[in-house]
Design brief:
elongated; alpha+beta; Hsp33 domain; 328 residues; 25% strand; binds zinc ion
Length: 328
């Protein structure tokens, strides 16, 4: 069962979360593997997409936000795009576009940052976004301060959190074909939050304490091995790392409240997309292939439009035809 465990360090301005995606992650991989057009991901791509999926769930669980969090890597190598979307209710979907050979031992830069032109984008798209309002987006390169290529995706996100949110963050991520998991530790911004209630130190003293405590906890968190993250349960992980710290745990989010696979595609959206192609283009596809077929890269659903469907789409230029099937 996929789960999120959130906690704070009692009396300290440091919070954390562990996510373990099992059924939700296996479902994402299963759908990809059964897609006859693409087939299963090469192993390094699977690992990258799994780490991104765990990270996106951690980030969504870490903010108060009603809408979708979209984590994307735009690659300049054989992996052109990797994208994960997480809704506020932890509905998750993910996909990657592979357009070339990925060797079994390919590094992050060999997949998405060959010419150091790869980018990582984080988008927050609010549920109640007004027409014309742009979603918030932050973009970071896949290199460090000295333009050196980063080889761990967690390093890319740590950079992002520091640059855009000004938050010290420690991330450990790992994924295989059964589990996508992550640990996040973050220093809370300044004093005055509920976590510091009762703390009578001055702001300056707080600042010193904050860094000291955060640094100690970050070192502990960083000692977590990839193998441990993949194979141990959450209780064991937290006990091994933080047995000497005082953790305040929140109710885990699991089952229906936890991360689960779900795709937001539907026939309406595909209809609008075909409309966007224009009548000429749609009819030329019809002539060539006998139907217009659009597959969802996230869930594998195939949407098919025959001559009658296409005629209906372009019959009423200002109105959408009624949907014949709403596929979730
Ligand atoms: Zn879909």
């Amino acid at each position: 069962m996929s789960e999120i465990h959130k906690f704070i360090f009692e009396g300290l301005p440091v919070r954390g979360a562990v996510v373990r995606l099992t059924d939700a992650w296996v479902e994402i991989l299963r759908r990809r593997a059964s897609n006859t057009t693409h087939g299963a991901y090469p192993l390094p791509v699977q690992a990258l997409l799994g780490e991104m999926t765990a990270a996106a769930v951690l980030m969504q669980s870490n903010i108060k936000f009603n809408g979708s969090l979209i984590l994307q890597v735009f690659g300049d190598g054989p992996v052109k795009l990797a994208v994960v979307e997480v809704q506020s209710d932890f509905a998750v979907r993910a996909t990657a576009t592979v357009n070339g050979e990925v060797s079994a031992d390919a590094t992050l830069s060999q997949m998405v940052n060959v010419g150091n032109e790869g980018r990582c984008a984080i988008t927050l798209d609010p549920q109640d976004r007004q027409p014309g309002q742009q979603p918030y987006q932050g973009v970071v390169p896949l290199f460090g301060d000295d333009k050196e290529k980063l080889e761990k995706f967690s390093d890319v996100l740590q950079h992002y959190m520091l640059q855009s949110e000004q938050l010290d963050t420690t991330l450990v991520l790992a994924a295989d074909d059964k589990v996508a998991a992550g640990l996040l530790i973050q220093r809370l911004p300044m004093s005055g939050t509920g976590n510091l209630a009762g703390n009578t130190h001055s702001a300056d003293e707080d600042q010193i304490g904050i860094n000291e405590h955060y640094n100690r906890i970050a070192v502990l968190a960083s000692s977590l091995k990839r193998e441990e993250l993949l194979t141990l349960d959450v209780e064991t992980i937290l006990h091994r790392l933080f047995w000497d710290e005082s953790l305040l745990r929140f109710e885990p989010l699991q089952g229906e409240a936890g991360p689960h696979f779900s795709c937001t595609c539907n026939r309406d959206r595909v209809t609008r997309m075909i409309k966007g192609l224009g009548a000429d283009e749609a009819h030329s596809i019809l002539q060539e292939l006998g139907q217009v077929e659009v597959g969802c890269d996230f869930c594998g659903t195939q949407y098919r439009f025959d001559t009658v469907d296409v005629a209906q789409i372009f019959r009423q230029p200002d109105e959408l035809p009624p949907t014949s099937a709403a596929v979730q």
